[in-house]
Each structure stands twice: as structure tokens, then as C-alpha cells.
Amino acid sequence: MTPYQAYQLALAEGLDLVEIVPTANPPVCKIIDFGKYQYDVSRREKMQKKNQQVVLVKEVRLHPQTDTHDFDFKVRHARHFIEQGHKVKVVVVFRGRQLAYKEHGHQMLKKVTELLNDIAKIEQENKLEGYQMFAIFSPDKAVKKKAEKKPMENPPQKKVP
């Protein structure tokens, strides 16, 4: 039908004539309530945003001379971030001549990998950029699913006075 006839039909029904495929020959149009259509599209977008999960990359900085207690403390923080579902970037920062001893940085990152391999997988291996050596860890979904399925072995007992 002609565009004028389609427009008259839409007016008679109290709806809008919307061009769907303008490049087709003849163009494809649809008679709909355009306000309702826009509302539905905005609701769909909101629902997608609501279900979307934002993954942050948290950074844990170490130095080649970091002591064992400080190292353990930083690894605990990294573990906490991974358990929350964030990615963790572990960075070993070298200063000045420390860069001559890159193997210390490799050893530290290897140790971190060993301590986190039960809950995380390595997303990016050790990489040296300038004065920084880093590795990126992400939560291991397979481990998380096992933890959810596994029942508590020893549930807490109520103390009777």
C-alpha cells in the first residue's frame, strides 16, 4: 500500500507508522505504539545493566625486598579480592639497580602463583614492562562451583550452657 494509505490506517487506529527497514524496496513499515516500544526497549536495557557484573582489576604491589610477613599480608589481600570475584594484578616494582636481579621478581610471582592457584587461574604470565614485573590472576570459576556444591563438613555446633 502507499505510505499515505498506511499513515491513514495508523491514524485511524491511534497508533504510529514506524519505518523498520528503510533500505528495502519497497520500505518495510509497521503500525505500533511508538511510546510503548521505546519504554520496552529502555526496560530491556535496564535489565541487561542490572544483570551485568562489573569486574574490577585490583592491584597488589610488591618489591623484591618485601619481607615475609608483608608478603603474606599482601597475598591475603589478593586472596580476599579474588574471593569477591575481582581480578588481581600482582606487581613487583623494581627501583634503580634492583632491575639487575629480575630473578627475585620471578621468584616472588612464582610464590604468589603457588599460594593462589587453589582459587585463581593465571590470566597473564609474568611480564616485565619497564621497572615493573606483573602477573594477572582471575577467579577460577571451576573452583567456585565445586565450593558451592560441597556441603559443610563440620557444621558449627550450638554450645549448651
The total count of strands amounts to 6
Rounded average pLDDT: 85
> Terminal Cα separation, in Å?
86 Å
The radius of gyration computed from the alpha-carbon positions, rounded to a whole number of angstroms, is 29 Å
The major pleated sheet works out as: 4 strands, mixed
Low-confidence stretches: none
State the order of secondary-structure elements, H for helix, E for strand.
HEEHEHEHEEH
How helix-rich are the residues, as a percent range? 40-55%
Order of strands across the main sheet: 3-4-6-5
Envelope shape: elongated
- Which structural class best describes the helix and strand composition? alpha+beta
Q: Can you count the helices? A: 5
- Relative strand content: 25-35%
Task: Provide an overview of this structure.
The structure is a single chain. This protein is α+β, with helices and mostly antiparallel strands. It contains 5 helices and 6 strands, in the order H-E-E-H-E-H-E-H-E-E-H. The protein has helices at residues 3-13, 34-51, 68-83, 102-116, 141-149, and strands spanning 16-21, 28-32, 57-62, 87-93, 120-129, 132-139.
Compact description:
This protein has helices at 3-13, 34-51, 68-83, 102-116, 141-149; strands at residues 16-21, 28-32, 57-62, 87-93, 120-129, 132-139.
Key descriptive features of the protein:
four-stranded mixed beta sheet; two-stranded antiparallel sheet; 6 strands; alpha+beta; 5 helices; 161 residues
